[in-house]
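Researcher: Next sequence.
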Amino acid sequence: MAQLYFYYSAMNAGKSTALLQSSYNYQERGMRTVVYTAEIDDRFGAGKVSSRIGLSSPAKLFN
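Model: Next structure:
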């Protein structure tokens, strides 16, 4: 069964970077991942999660 994890921390703690790295690692092992972002968050473009170090991934929107 799939699992859902919530990570929370202060700003600039690397949450987005950790998310994108984990997603990449799962995909490398042949597993499917889904990344979600809030519909109102369009800082880097709608439907996209980005980190300060330049990693990015398409994401499904929720409201």
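Model: The first strand starts at residue 36 and ends at 38. Helices lie at 15-28.
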